[in-house]
Design brief:
D-Maltodextrin-Binding Protein, domain 2, about 15% strand, five-stranded mixed β-sheet, alpha/beta
Length: about 350
């Protein structure tokens, strides 16, 4: 896989003006039994197949979507594929939205989409430093390699809440070499991938700071759909959400070999050791199952949490105070304790 591209997975601003791509990416189709009448569903992801999408592949591979009456096609994203613009025009039914900010962005641009579940309670975004760095605030004294998307979003929060500065930033080109060459630097990444890649290449264990654990309160890995689908086919939306939640429980806690086989088939760069590392990191850091998910189930969202994050983004100058952010999401399909019985006791 190499170093995962934050650009491809989490471009958070100006998303709707980007040039789109058709459904040319290879889709993964789980073929149902002929006797069953299943609802066809197209689900577009925001990046190439990877363990951060594992729960969806799990629900496909183990037949959970089929049990919920769904014939699901997963349409992978990638560096040259913009699946998100296919959602409002009806080319796909659901999209994997990387971050709560994308919902705010949709409202700001009057795009008729809505976030219906948050499969990650914590955004996986991290800053990665050399082993000698001890505290998160020590990063203020380092050169930071940050992408332009990161600068427009979470870095504005770092400036507002922690006093980070623009002058310490250099462009992140999704190449770890500048970071590896400078022990007084840090770089962005995902907790589930870049630390693993750095350890493999540089043969040292980097210091990892998860922004969510420092107060960046965005949800991540949202299921996003169109408002008209919510209005006209709420049962379909509910079944897709519920089956995906069960898929995530089974992926992180139970036998995920079939899902990983699908991921590797569609992404030959994926390796067994990276898959195992990513799942372990999701457990260790509570990416999927922590916070409100502990009582409400995986996929949980709350008004209070989203209000808090919106206020963070207003303070940081990322969102406008008069934005009607409540239009970005609905709690109608989550917080029902679906799948709680699948959590290990």
């Amino acid at each position: 896989m190499g170093l995962a591209s934050f650009l491809g997975r989490t471009a958070l601003t100006g998303f709707w003006t980007a040039a789109g791509a058709g459904l040319s990416a290879v889709a993964i189709l789980f073929v149902p039994a002929a006797a069953q009448a299943l609802d066809k569903v197209a689900f577009g992801t925001n990046w190439v197949p990877e363990p951060e999408h594992g729960g969806f592949y799990q629900a496909l591979a183990d037949g959970t979507y089929r049990k919920y009456g769904l014939d699901v096609t997963i349409v992978p994203g990638g560096p040259n594929v913009n699946n998100r613009i296919l959602l409002p025009v009806g080319k796909i039914d659901f999209f994997l939205s990387a971050n709560t900010l994308q919902g705010f962005d949709a409202v700001a641009h009057n795009v008729p989409t809505v976030e219906v579940a948050a499969l990650f309670q914590k955004d996986p975004q991290v800053l990665i430093a050399h082993p000698g760095v001890q505290k998160f605030t020590d990063l203020k004294n380092l050169t930071l390699f940050i992408s332009k998307e990161g600068m427009a979003t979470y870095y504005q929060w770092l400036k507002a809440d922690y006093g980070f500065t623009d002058s310490q930033v250099k462009p992140y080109t999704f190449n770890p070499q500048p970071f590896l060459a400078d022990p007084k630097s840090a770089m962005q990444g995902y907790v589930t991938s870049e630390p693993f890649a750095i350890e493999k290449v540089a043969h040292f264990k980097p210091k990892v700071f998860l922004l969510a654990d420092q107060g960046f309160s965005a949800y991540s890995t949202h299921i996003e759909t169109r408002r008209d689908l919510v209005d006209k086919k709420p049962d379909l939306v509910q079944r897709f959400v519920d089956a995906s939640i069960i898929g995530w429980y089974n992926y992180i806690y139970h036998d995920n070999s079939a899902a990983n086989a699908l991921i590797k088939k569609q992404n030959p760069e994926m390796t067994d050791d990276l898959l195992a590392y990513s799942v372990a990191a999701m457990k260790q850091y509570g990416i999927v199952d922590s916070g409100d998910a502990a009582t409400l189930g995986v996929g949980a969202m709350t008004d209070a949490r989203i209000k808090h994050f919106f206020e963070e983004m207003v303070r940081a100058g990322v969102a406008k105070a008069d934005l009607d952010y409540r239009k970005a999401y609905t709690l109608r399909f989550v917080d029902k304790k679906v799948g709680l019985d699948l959590r290990p006791r």
